[in-house]
Design a protein that fits this description.
The chain contains 6 helices and 10 strands. It is α/β, with parallel strands linked by helices and 229 residues long. Bound molecules: ligand 4EZ.
């Protein structure tokens, strides 16, 4: 029996999801709120972690280890790197990396620490479901590499660094930490983002303007995927 975790980082990223459900049970735990619903015979736990890799790791781990979720879907927004990604576009992650993890002083590549791996791959099965849903709904969905770091990227220099070092197509602040948690606990996971900005000097303004609409794009697609699970 699947117990689904649906996660975002910000309230604006899960608010559009919560609006699909009623009879929501709220549990307060570890300085956060976990919303439990039943939908189409699925038990679902929904939460927004707060921003950044540490909060995201705590929430992903809690949803799996305390609430017993066996599948995790992430919905949110991201900064676009690949020039074909426009604001509002959807991207699903094939694999994710941490662009600010750096022990290059010891000759290691960016994003690597001993015992870890630069890239963590998402669930192929969940990606296939997503692509089928996209096709059925005539939605354009980009598939690529997402880089995660504990910083809002708003400069050409940092955007180019992330692109050059990881060949990343988009960047954000939680996905790769969720990936490490799920990979280590052997939980299939899926990371979906909609572009809110393109991580350049206008990123802050674009983010403020497009957060809500892009978060809704991502949430609406995610719900269609949930209906196929
Ligand atoms: C109050 C400000 C909260 C910013 C949170 C941004 N999220 C983090 O996951 C996604 C994101 C959208 N655009 C980004 C960018 N240019 N750099 C990093 N992260 C992002």
């Amino acid at each position: 029996m699947t117990k689904l975790a649906i996660m975002g980082a910000m309230e604006e990223e899960i608010e559009p999801l919560l609006s699909y459900f009623d009879n929501i049970k709220i549990t307060n735990y570890a300085d956060n709120k976990y919303y439990e619903v039943n939908y189409n015979g699925l038990e679902i736990v929904i939460a927004y972690s707060k921003i950044g890799k540490v909060f995201a790791s705590l929430t992903a781990s809690t949803m799996i280890q305390k609430f017993g979720c066996d599948t995790l879907l992430f919905s949110g927004v991201a900064g676009g790197i690949n020039p074909s990604l426009k604001i509002g576009d959807l991207i699903i992650a094939d694999k994710l990396c941490q662009h600010d993890l750096d022990i290059t002083a010891f000759g290691h590549p960016n994003g690597y620490v001993p015992g870890g791996k630069i890239f963590v791959e998402t669930s192929n099965e969940l990606r296939e479901v997503a692509k089928k849903v996209a096709q059925e709904n005539k939605l354009d969905v980009f598939e690529g590499i997402i880089a995660t770091g504990d910083q809002f990227v708003h400069s050409k220099e940092r955007k180019e660094f992330v692109q050059e070092k990881f060949n990343a197509d988009a960047l954000e602040m939680e996905g790769a930490s969720v990936a490490v948690i799920c990979d280590s606990l052997n939980i299939p996971f899926f990371i979906l983002r909609a572009i809110s900005d393109v991580a350049d000097m206008d990123a802050g303004f674009d983010f403020d303007e497009f957060l809500k609409s892009s978060a809704k794009n991502s949430a609406n697609f995610l719900i269609k995927i949930v209906e196929q699970l």
